[in-house]
Amino acid sequence: MFIPIWVIVLIVVVMGGWVFWSLAAVRGRNPLPFPDGGSRIFTAASPEGKEAIVALLDRHGLKARFQADSGGVLRSILWDGTIINHPTPEVHQRLGFAAASIGLVVRNPDKAAQSAVAFLRERGFQAEVVSNVEVGLPIAFVTTDAMVGTVLNFRKSMIHMPKPSPA
After folding, report:
1. DSSP string, 48-91
2. Could you give the CA distance from residue 2 to residue 46 in angstroms, rounded to a whole number?
3. Cβ atoms 38, 154 nearer than 8 A
4. Domain layout of the chain by residue ranges
5. Rounded distance, CA 98 to CA 102, Å?
6. Could you give the 3-state DSSP secondary structure of residue 100?
7. Please, which of 15, 98, 135, 140 could form a disulfide with 109 given CB 3.0 to 4.6 Å?
8. Which pLDDT score is estimated for 35?
9. 33-166: what fold?
10. CA–CA gap between residue 43 and residue 65 (Å, rounded)
11. Residue 57: its pLDDT value, please?
12. pTM of the entire predicted model
C-alpha cells in the first residue's frame, strides 16, 4: 500500500504537536491562553520582596510565565495562574490595603462586579465596586468585609488583556 510522504509528515507533525501540548498541560504549563481559570493574587511588601518570592517559588517548581507590569502594579504571572505583585501605594490604598485577591474571568467585569456586590449585600455584608484601578485594563474589583485582607477581581480572559512582556 502506497502512502504519500506528505501524509506521513502531516501525521507526524500533528501527533508531535499533540504530544507536546499534552505533556505541557500535564506539567501545568499549558502554552495556550485558554482555558483561563482565573488567578490567585498575592501582594509582596516591596519590589525586592516580589522578586525574592518569585525566585523562591521557582526553586519549588512554580515557574514564572511572564511579567505583566502596568503603571500601578509590578506583576509576575506564574504558569499555574498564581500572580505575585507589588502595587503602588495609591493602588494598594484604593483596594483597602488588601494583601490577596481572587481573580475571576468574566465577559463583562463591571457587570459581574456589580452582581457580586448585590449578592454579598443580600447576605448582610458590605461590598463595593472599585473600578479603573489600573487604567486601560478590563478589571473591576470588589472590596468586602466578607473576606479579611482579600478582594475579588473580575477580569476579561487573558486573550482580551494587553500583551505582557516575557518573564
Report:
1. HHHHHHHHHHHHTT--EEEE---SSEEEEEETTSEEEEEE-HHH
2. 65
3. no
4. 1-32, 33-166
5. 11
6. strand
7. 140
8. 66
9. 2,3-Dihydroxybiphenyl 1,2-Dioxygenase; domain 1 (3.10.180)
10. 17
11. 93
12. 0.71
